[in-house]
Amino acid sequence: FLKTKIVILGAGYGGLMTTVRLQKKIRTDEVEIVLINKNNYHYETTWLHEAAAGTLRDDQVTYPVKSVIDVKKVAFIQASVTKIATAEKKVMTNIGEVSYDYLVIALGGESETFGIKGLKEYAFSITSVDAAKRIREHIESQFSTYQNEALKKEERLTIIVGGAGFTGIEFLGELVNRIPKLCKTYEIDQNKVKIYCVEAAKAVLPGFDPELVEYAVAYLEKRGVEFKIGTPIKGADPEGILVGIGEEETQEIKAGTVIWAAGIRGSSVIEESGFEANRCRVKVDPDLRAPGHENIFIIGDCSLIINEEINRPYPPTAQIALQQADVVTNNLLALLRQETNLTAFKPDIKGTVCSLGERDAIGIVFGKKLKGKPASVMKKVIDNRALFSIGGTSTVLKKGKFNIL
Ligand code: FAD
Known about the structure:
10 helices, flavoprotein, FAD
C-alpha cells in the first residue's frame, strides 16, 4: 500500500501556508507530505527592504521552518530545486530527485531586468535574505571606505533606486531612516549623500491614489530623495547608470550603489521545466492548476491571475499567495477524496499599505484612505497577521512588530 505523496516547493508565504494548513487537515497514514526549501528558515519577503536598508536585523525577518511544521507529518528537505520533470513526476534538486503524486509550486519571484544592459551584473535586487544582506553590507562598506580613503570618491555616497513602485518606495522609506545613522557612525556630512529614485513611468506608484502618492513623495523628498520620473534606465556599469533623456539623449549618473526594484518575474525553475509561461509566471486554471497538468498547482509569484475587471494580471503579492494556499489545500483534499469539482480561486483584495520607514505609511484598507501613523499601525497589523496565519501566536510573539508608538 503506497501512500499518496504531496510535494510542496518553497517555504515562503504560499508554500509554508499550504504546508501548515495540510498538516492540520490530513491524517499521515493516508498521505505523505514533503516540503522542499532552499534554506532551513522561512523569511518574510515583504520585510526584506528593511533588512536591505539595515533597519531590521536578518534574524528578525526569518524563523526556522521546523518551528511551524509538524515533523511527524511533514518531511522537510533543505535543497535547491533546479527543475521539474513533469512526465516522470519528479523534482530535481541540487542533492537528488524527489518523486511526487501531487505538486505545489510556490518558489516565489526573481528580479526581472527586461534585458537592460548591465543591470544583472551591477545592480542589486531585494529578492532574498542573502540579497538583502549583500545590499546592507555594500552600502555600509561604501560609507566606511569613503571615511578612510585619502582621495574621496564622492559618488560612493550616491545610492540609486531603480523603480518607484511599492518595493522601491518602501526601500527608500527605510533608507532615509538609515542614512543619518550611517553618517553618524562614519562621521560623514549627510549633505554629501545623494539618493535618487529613477522611474521610467510618468508617475510614482502608478495607479495609486494621487493624494497618497503626493504625501509619500513629499515625505521622501523632505528627507533627501530626488525623484527622476519619466526617466528610463538604459544601462548600468561599475560606475553607475545611464538614463534616457528625451528621445535620443542619455546621461550618466555615477553611483556607488544601484538597486533595481522595478521588475519581478517568477522562478526560473518554471522556465527550466518547460511550463508555458510569461516571465516565468504561469497563467493557472481557476482551480490553480497548471494548464494541462492535473496534479500540479502553482501559486504565489510563479502564478498569474487575471483581474477580470481591468483585464490585466494582479500584481503578485503575499496577500494573494496566502489566499491561494487556502484554495490549494482545499483542492488537494478534494482530489484525495476523488472529487472532481474543485474550488475556483477569487482574490479578495482587502487593501494595500506602503510603508515609509518604521513610523509612517500610506495605504487604502477596506476602501479607506490612510496616511501617517494610522497607516503605519495598520501595516504592522498586516505584518503580524501574516506571521500569525502561518506560525500562530508563538511566532507573532517572537517576531511580531509591536513598536507602534
Ligand atoms: P516567497 O514568499 O518569496 O517564497 C518563496 C520561497 O521559495 C522562499 O522561501 C525561497 O527561499 C524559496 N525558493 C526560491 N527558489 C527556490 C529553489 N530553487 N529551491 C528551493 N527553494 C526555493 N506583498 C504584499 O502583499 N504586501 C507587501 O507589503 C509587500 N511588500 C513587499 C516588499 C518587498 C521588498 C518585496 C520583495 C515584496 C513585497 N511583496 C508584498 C510581494 C510578496 O512578498 C510576494 O508576492 C510573496 O512573497 C510571494 O509569495 P511566494 O510564496 O510566491 O514566494
